Amino acid sequence: MSAAASLARAAFRPILDFALPPRCPGCGAVTAEPHRFCLACWSSLRFLGEPCCACCALPFAFGEGESVLCGACLAEPPAFDRLRAAVAYGEVSRKVALKLKYGGRPGVAETIARFMARHVESEEERALLVPVPLHRWRIWRRGYNQSALIAAALCGRTGLAVKLDLIERVKATPPLREMGPAERRKAVRGAFRIAPGHRPGLKGKTILLVDDVYTSGATATACARVLKRAGAARVNILCWARVVRGGDD
Ligand SMILES: [Zn+2]
Ligand SMILES: [Zn+2]
Fold first, then answer.
1. Closest CA to 128 of 193, 55, 202
2. 116 Cβ contact list (under 8 Å, min separation 6)
3. Cis peptide before 181, with omega less than 30 degrees from 0?
4. Are 6 and 143 in contact (CB under 8 A)?
5. Which position among 74, 75, 156, 240 has the lowest Cβ density within 10 Å, counted as fewest Cβ atoms?
6. What's the pLDDT at 44?
7. How far is the CA of 76 from the centre of ligand 1 (A)?
8. If you average pLDDT over every residue of the chain, what do you get?
9. Which protein residues have their CB within 5 A of the ion that is ligand 2?
10. Distance between CA atoms of 120 and 210, rounded to whole angstroms?
11. pLDDT of residue 24 exceeding 80
12. Is the pLDDT of residue 127 over 90?
């Protein structure tokens, strides 16, 4: 498809979204109202919240009290200060993430931003929303960055300031799916930088880094390091789905 045709399609899509009946972002079933899951998808989503690790949101089976950390965060404190995710990564949350990633539906970004916005804390009211960037080759191919769509929708819902191009991905990284944690860390090393001219405003800032899925944390960690090095006081991660491995809870 030509660039002009894909632009025209992207511009036309919100109108189509508006004209068609609302659909469940999990399975595509028609729903009574927009931005709702159907009952089956809703009941299979695992919403995350307390009790959980104060840092990485790993669910705990029992309330252990506030500011309790999981074993992994105690052993090796993450480069970010806090992570919050709307749901655990599973069949439905994966489908939603894929729909956003390859379908580019702003409506899906709006739906999941509603669930993510509940995790924005009052101390983050002056935070700056920043999406995890894609490499420009990938943006050219796909036409958009799914994390930027979510960040823009979150800005609309929460009123927080947003800076879509604060971080740049200067190295195209291969898909991390098949890699182990050490390989992932190596693959994203040196992949990110603060976009030229954006560094001065970062000192002392709280950044709310927006991503779709949190898997090993390699990408979020690499971005958090770059932000901290540039003077950010706190880097919190907010994502749609977080991988929760069996046996953790
Ligand atoms: Zn559904
Ligand atoms: Zn933890």
1. 202
2. 84, 86, 150, 154, 210, 238, 239, 240
3. no
4. yes
5. 75
6. 96
7. 38
8. 88
9. 53, 55-56, 58, 70, 73
10. 11
11. yes
12. yes
Residues 140-165 have pLDDT tens digits of 777 789 999 999 999 999 999 999 99
pLDDT digits (tens, 9 = 90+) for 44-79: 999 999 999 999 999 998 877 778 999 999 999 999
Distance 110 CA to ligand 1 centre (A): 16
* pLDDT computed for residue 9 by the predictor: 54
Q: How far is the CA of 37 from the centre of ligand 1 (A)?
A: 5
Sign, CA torsion 242/229/195/122: positive
CA 87 → CA 143, 165, 168, distances in Å? 26, 26, 27
Question: pTM of the prediction?
Answer: 0.87
CB neighbours of 244 closer than 8 A, spacing ≥ 6? 46, 48, 58, 59, 88, 89
Phi, psi of 130 (to 5 degrees): -135, 120
Can you tell me which residue has the tokens 């101390």?
A: 123
> Cα of 130 to ligand 1 centre, how many Å?
29
Which residues contact residue 30 at a Cβ distance below 8 angstroms, ignoring those fewer than 6 apart?
21, 22, 23, 24
Q: Of the ligands numbered here, which is closest to the C-alpha atom of 82?
A: 2
CA of 230 to the centre of ligand 2 (A): 25
pLDDT (tens digit per residue) in 103-115:
877 789 999 999 9
